[in-house]
């Protein structure tokens, strides 16, 4: 990855923007409008964007996949804000899994 590309910090910045807009007028902020109908509307939008990512991945359209992936990450952050879940909590969970086999992790959930 090139050093001039955005890092994971862009997700934390996006989260902060969404969190800051949750009390904005609904007519001025898409994030506020989604959060006003949480959890249902943000979760529905997340599901919709997930489907669009799957479609673009199957089509093999890399540019469209990047756009839909950005939409998916945005809507995931909205769901996190609505749930009071911080990016740091997710990063900690990912870090805790780092030295575990994916198969062992999946088996441990049962």
Oligomer designation: single chain
* Helical segment count: 6
CATH superfamily: MazG-like
Helix-and-strand structural type:
mainly alpha
CATH architecture descriptor: Orthogonal Bundle
CATH topology: Helix Hairpins
- Give the biggest beta sheet: none
| Beta-strand residue fraction | under 5%
Helix percent reads: over 70%
What's the number of structural domains? 1
Q: Class, according to the CATH hierarchy?
A: Mainly Alpha
Would you tell me the overall average pLDDT?
A: 92
Cα-atom Rg, whole angstroms? 16 Å
Number of strands: 0
Summary keywords:
about 110 residues, about 0% strand, Helix Hairpins, mainly alpha, globular, single chain
Question: What secondary-structure arrangement, pairings included, does this model have?
Answer:
Elements: H1 9-21, H2 30-36, H3 40-59, H4 62-83, H5 87-97, H6 102-108
Helix pairs in contact: 1-4, 3-4
